[in-house]
Inverse folding.
């Protein structure tokens, strides 16, 4: 199996997200960066599949030079190849991103053969455009289903599970195919020391691909107006229990 | 004309469809346009079906309804739905197409957008149509699951493809109700049979009853619970209150609870009458999933914790003592 995972480097916010003075980005001065959570699970899933069936995992990202960190992290948990479409780090709109990813995937398939499976995150943690995977797959003529929280490979077909309220749906796709996966499909492993060392030696393929901008443009980011709630302290420790139950009675949930 | 794509599950209209119509009414008024609605696929024979959906769409402000059918549309399929929306859009030439930004809604509008080679803006909370001379739409949309808002513009030669963020509006019918149901027009889209490749193959029902997204009470636990076993008192309290246990991402990352219990940006959005959040600091990732709660009660040893600051009520203390004491007090009052 040849599996491609598309991942995005995003800030790792804690309790509060601040915006830069020009309003065009998250102020990441005091934040670390990470792989968008759905996509981290995509990498784990791909590694698990190749551990069972053999094959190789390639991880592709579009971003600044620093996004190589996310490729190295993927290598530290078992991915085999890393490809970076290097940009100046400014946010790209979804159509432009999809066009560049499509061009990169076509080039990778031209040189290395087709990918049996392409995994996207269901949506990125930051901009959340909900469309890049769908756009890429349409251009490649490949089927894609989003919202996937379970994959089973049977020969050249795959069964994919998607949660619905109170149960799940099953899709059956012939490969080559693509899926948009969600966190919960697995529990990503932590890198081992050996993995970390191996990732340092990962040869990253860098591509320079520009693409035509799409119709959606970012004007300004801002924080939603905070509804300042006046927290009523009901008490300290177990002695507060009667006051809590009074509240529950008042709300009619008892 | 504004065309609203109605999300339904095998012939039963869901809350997402009603929300799209409610949001769409305001947008259509700003556009000075009529709101029409499209129902993709006929649904299961036992369901209410397209005519019942059309009547409900009329109650929510649609003045014309299109039922779109083809043999491929026997169940939900993102490519078949997207192709149907693209074809209907080509046929009717609406000024904008809107769906609710649910999992399916965002997916099918994206599928339609790429087929129309058009931009799509997902999860808007407010949309302004182009002014007199300006060709651009402007909108506010959510980023980071709602922790951040983005002012954006959309320039497009064709229709604007849009979704409204889930729960931006509470659904409501028009008042007074329309005197007659809207006219219904059937459209046969004649889809390529190969689009059946992404249609739902089978369905599995796992649980009946109260689920996390619909529970009236959620008792949440975070890192402060300390272990899988530590959730037993939370389970007990949830059961007493007819609710469900939820948890933070730290908990699922530690393997203490299944991911299906995770409340947050990458987990479940909850909307209970009260969320009892214990041992949860309230990081952005978790808050986004919890902020739909009508009331929040935080239990935490740290009075400065984000969850305590944002809660309506708080108990400062160790959840391992406080939660069992609440259960004991409920039992005492019942006996």
């Amino acid at each position: 199996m040849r599996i491609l995972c598309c991942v995005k480097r995003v800030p790792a916010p804690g309790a509060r997200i601040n915006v830069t003075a020009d309003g065009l980005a998250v102020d990441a001065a005091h934040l670390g960066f990470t792989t968008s959570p759905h996509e981290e699970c995509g990498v784990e899933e791909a590694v698990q599949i190749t551990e069972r069936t053999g094959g190789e995992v390639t991880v592709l990202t579009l971003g600044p030079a620093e996004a190589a960190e996310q490729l190295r992290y993927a290598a530290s948990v078992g991915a085999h190849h890393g490809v970076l479409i290097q940009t100046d780090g400014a946010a790209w709109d979804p159509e432009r991103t999809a066009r560049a990813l499509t061009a990169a995937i076509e080039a990778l398939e031209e040189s290395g053969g087709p990918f049996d499976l392409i995994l996207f995150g269901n949506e990125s943690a930051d901009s959340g455009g909900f469309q890049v995977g769908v756009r890429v797959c349409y251009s490649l003529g490949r089927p894609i289903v989003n919202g996937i929280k379970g994959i089973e490979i049977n020969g050249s077909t795959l069964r994919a599970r998607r949660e619905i309220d109170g149960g799940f749906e099953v899709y059956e796709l012939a490969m080559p195919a693509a899926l948009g996966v969600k966190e919960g499909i697995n529990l990503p492993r932590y890198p081992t020391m050996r993995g970390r060392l191996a990732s340092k030696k990962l040869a990253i393929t860098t591509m320079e691909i520009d693409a035509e901008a799409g119709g959606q443009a970012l004007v300004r980011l801002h924080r939603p107006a905070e509804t300042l709630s006046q927290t009523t302290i009901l008490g300290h420790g177990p002695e507060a229990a009667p006051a809590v139950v009074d509240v529950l009675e008042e709300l009619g949930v008892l | 004309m504004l065309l609203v794509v109605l999300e339904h599950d095998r012939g039963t209209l869901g809350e997402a469809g009603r929300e799209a119509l409610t949001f769409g009414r305001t947008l259509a008024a700003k556009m000075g346009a009529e709101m029409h609605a499209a129902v993709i696929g006929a649904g299961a024979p036992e369901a209410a079906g397209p005519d019942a959906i059309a009547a409900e769409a009329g109650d929510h402000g649609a003045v014309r309804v299109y039922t779109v059918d083809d043999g491929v549309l026997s169940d939900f399929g993102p490519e078949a739905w997207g192709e149907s929306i693209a074809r209907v859009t080509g046929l009717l030439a609406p000024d904008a197409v809107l769906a609710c930004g649910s999992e399916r809604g965002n997916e099918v509008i994206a599928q339609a957008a790429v087929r129309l080679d058009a931009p799509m803006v997902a999860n808007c909370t407010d949309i302004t149509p182009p002014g007199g001379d300006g060709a651009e739409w402007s909108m506010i949309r959510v980023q980071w699951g709602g922790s951040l808002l983005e002012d954006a513009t959309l320039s497009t030669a064709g229709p604007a493809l849009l979704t409204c963020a889930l729960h931006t509006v509470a659904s409501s019918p028009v008042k007074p109700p329309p005197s007659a149901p809207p006219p219904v027009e059937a459209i046969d889209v004649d889809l390529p049979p190969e689009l059946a490749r992404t249609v739902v193959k089978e369905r599995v029902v796992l649980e009946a009853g109260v689920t996390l997204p619909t529970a009236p009470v959620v008792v949440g636990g975070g890192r402060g619970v300390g272990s899988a076993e530590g959730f037993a008192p939370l389970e007990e309290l949830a059961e007493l209150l007819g609710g469900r246990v939820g948890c933070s991402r730290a908990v699922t990352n530690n393997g203490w609870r299944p991911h299906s219990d995770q409340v947050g940006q990458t987990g479940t959005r909850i909307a209970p009458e009260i969320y009892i959040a214990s041992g949860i600091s309230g990081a952005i990732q978790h808050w986004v999933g919890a902020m739909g709660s009508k009331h929040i009660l935080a239990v935490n040893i740290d009075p400065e914790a984000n969850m305590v600051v944002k809660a309506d009520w708080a108990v400062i203390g160790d959840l391992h003592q406080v939660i069992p004491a609440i259960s004991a007090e409920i039992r005492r009052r019942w006996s």
The two ends of chain B are 61 Å apart (CA to CA). The CA atoms of residues 41 and 89 of chain B lie 16 Å apart. Residues 2-198 of chain B form a domain with the Rossmann fold fold (CATH 3.40.50.620). Chain B has two domains: 2-198, 212-334.
